[in-house]
Amino acid sequence: MTHIILPVDFSDTTDKLLQGAVKFAQTTQGKIFLIHVAPTDIGFAIGDMGFQYFPEIEQNEIKEELHQLNKLEQRIIAQGVDCEHMLRQGLAKDIILEYAQEKNADYIVMGSHGRSGMYDVFVGSLTKDLTKSSTIPVLVIPCHSND
């Protein structure tokens, strides 16, 4: 069974990325390991008194992101692909590469945005960083619309 790491950020490209990853997993009899990396500063805000931490904001945001991950996992499973999900906080590149090692991943599937001719914007800086740092293949799925 092929182990596929699928980082998601719940952006407008997530649906296209999910479709491509599911098709790839179906072709390779793969299992998808969904991961969302939340920033470590979710509950912080700047106010009159400087930086303040609001744990309830962080808890609510994490709860909502877990709910979204669960919905994505159910969509993948409904298409006949085995899946599990994980939410972690930290630096996305580092967390994704650690998770790929933990799951003995064969591939990391990322999306491209196609918003301009510049490489960083076209592919995405996280995708670029992962392709440079990963010891396993990074499959890049074009997620831009054909409009």
UniProtKB/TrEMBL annotation:
Q: Which Pfam families match?
A: Usp
Which InterPro entries does this UniProt record tie to the protein? Rossmann-like_a/b/a_fold, Universal_stress_UspA, UspA
Q: CDD domains attached here? A: USP-like
- Identify one Gene Ontology CC term for this UniProt entry: cytoplasm
> Ranges for the UspA domain?
2-142
N-terminal signal peptide: none
Q: Keywords of this protein's UniProt record, alphabetized?
A: Cytoplasm
- The main place the protein resides is cytoplasm
Subcellular localization(s) per the UniProt record: Cytoplasm
| Record family assignment | Belongs to the universal stress protein A family.
- Indicate what this protein is called per its UniProt record: Universal stress protein
Q: Which organism is it from?
A: Planobacterium oryzisoli
Q: What is the lineage of its organism?
A: Bacteria, Pseudomonadati, Bacteroidota, Flavobacteriia, Flavobacteriales
